[in-house]
Every structure is written in C-alpha cells, then in structure tokens.
Amino acid sequence: MERYARQLELLGPEGQEKLRGARVVIAGVGGLGSVVSMYLVAAGVGHIALFDNGTLEIHNLNRQIMYDEEGLGMYKVVAAVKRLKRLNSEIEVVGYAEDVRSGKFREEASRANLIVDCLDNWASRIVIDKVSWALRKPLVHGGVSEFYGQVTTIVPGITTCLRCVLNLSEERTSVAAARPLQIIGPTPGVVGAIEAVEAIKLLTGSGELLTNKLLIVDLKRMEFTTLRLVASEECLC
User: How many Å apart are CA 143 and CA 104, to the nearest integer?
Assistant: First the structure.
C-alpha cells in the first residue's frame, strides 16, 4: 500500500479497498478525460473503461496532457491505455474506440459503479444521461469552454437528470455543435481534477458531493460559484 500512503490516512484502508474494487466508465479521453483518468488510475481505482472514437491531432496537445507527439494519428484510447498502464500497472484499463451510443458502452456501464462525463458535445451527453438513468448509475458531469467550466453529480432517484439541469434538448445541441470549442488549456485541467475528486468521494463515501448543486468555475475572474438545484416536477426522468 506504499503507493497510496499519502491518501490512506484520509480514506482509510476501507476506502482504498473500495477504490480497488470499483469500476468506472470514462466517456471521452480528451482534455477532461486525460486528467480524470490519470488521477483515478493514480488513486487506485481497480477497473477503468475508456470510450472515445477520436484520433489524436496536433491541436489536441495544448490541453490533452496525457498525450505526446508520438501518439499523433493514433486512436486516443489506444495511446491512453498505454500511458495509464505505465502510470499504474496494478490497474485494469481497457479502451474502446467507439461512440457512447454503442452497445459496448452500455455493457460496460451496466457493470460500473460510476460514469464520468468528459465529453465535448451535448448530443452525446444526452445519450449518457439516458444510460445513467436507465441503469441507475451515478454520473459525474463536467463541461468546459474558454476559461469556464461546470461540474455536478447526478444520482438517479436523488437528483434531477442532467437534461433538466442543463436544459438540454436535441434542437439545442444541434445548434451548439455548429461552433468549434474554443478553450484555454488549463481549463479542463482544473475541471477534470474536480471531477476526479468527486468520483473518489462518491466511490469511497467521503465528503460532500455536488448532488443537487452546480459548481461554476470562472478562471478568467478566478471565481467559483455553487448553485443550488431543485429537482423539477417535470423532470424528463
């Protein structure tokens, strides 16, 4: 347990064992997913499944810090699995170059303790939100743009769904998808780290979660604001 010595006093042996026995699905291994996956692997989460059907391009490297120039042109999940296994050989890491709409995503999610949203488009977030509720699996959501980000934790039966929180619909997502994402590199680093902490707390039962709360991160003004959320009686779920 020497690898985890600095967190053992905080989580206790029981908490570390919970991480070791946990299964997490990470949707997207770009800017957010790079950070989330590295921190969860480093923390000792036993099984991690990565989903991303994109290949690594040069413009990714300013913010997707898990990768380097040697991985250009490769599927991100292939490069990610190699990197993460070098970080912690004790962890089982699998990668799927598939969309979250695939049957394999639902299969992995059905066996997972938690889904982490590290996606870069709203249409795919609608999909994983529906999977989360259909399978009754908690979902940690993170989103970024420019200098800004947001995080919340969705727990079916306790919170409202992500679609209601963010007022997501197919019509709105198609409009949003038309504009390429503009972003400063450290923004997903900050938001991804928060998502990773939220995941660790949820898996170990430590601390207070962002359930029925939306954390707004404004790095341009260096302000963090927490909004209280009230479940709607018209919630889609």
Answer: 24
Q: How far apart are CA 185 and CA 173, in angstroms?
A: 23
Which structure tokens are listed for 35? 């950070």
Architecture of domain 2-228: 3-Layer(aba) Sandwich (3.40)
Could you tell me the mean pLDDT of each successive run of 10 residues in the chain, 237 residues long? 92 96 98 98 98 96 95 96 96 97 97 97 93 97 96 93 79 55 93 98 96 96 94 70
pTM for this model (two decimals): 0.94
Token pair belonging to 206: 């430590």
What per-residue confidence (pLDDT) applies to 52?
97
Name the β-bridge partners of 27.
51, 117
Q: 148-154 and 47-51: which strand pairing?
A: unpaired
228 burial (CB, 10 Å; 0-12 / 13-18 / 19+) is exposed
> Integer distance in angstroms from the first to the last C-alpha of the chain?
41
Helices (H) and strands (E) in the chain, counts: 8, 8
Burial status of residue 162 (CB atoms within 10 A of its CB: 0-12, 13-18, 19 or more)? buried
Domain chopping of the chain, boundaries: 2-228
Residue 86 tokens, joined: 């070098």
Q: Under 8 Å CB-to-CB from 178, ≥6 apart: which residues?
A: none
Provide the 8-state DSSP code for 52: -
Cβ neighbours of residue 38 under 8 Å, at least 6 residues apart?
66, 83, 84, 87
How far is 99 from 55, CA to CA, in rounded Å?
A: 13
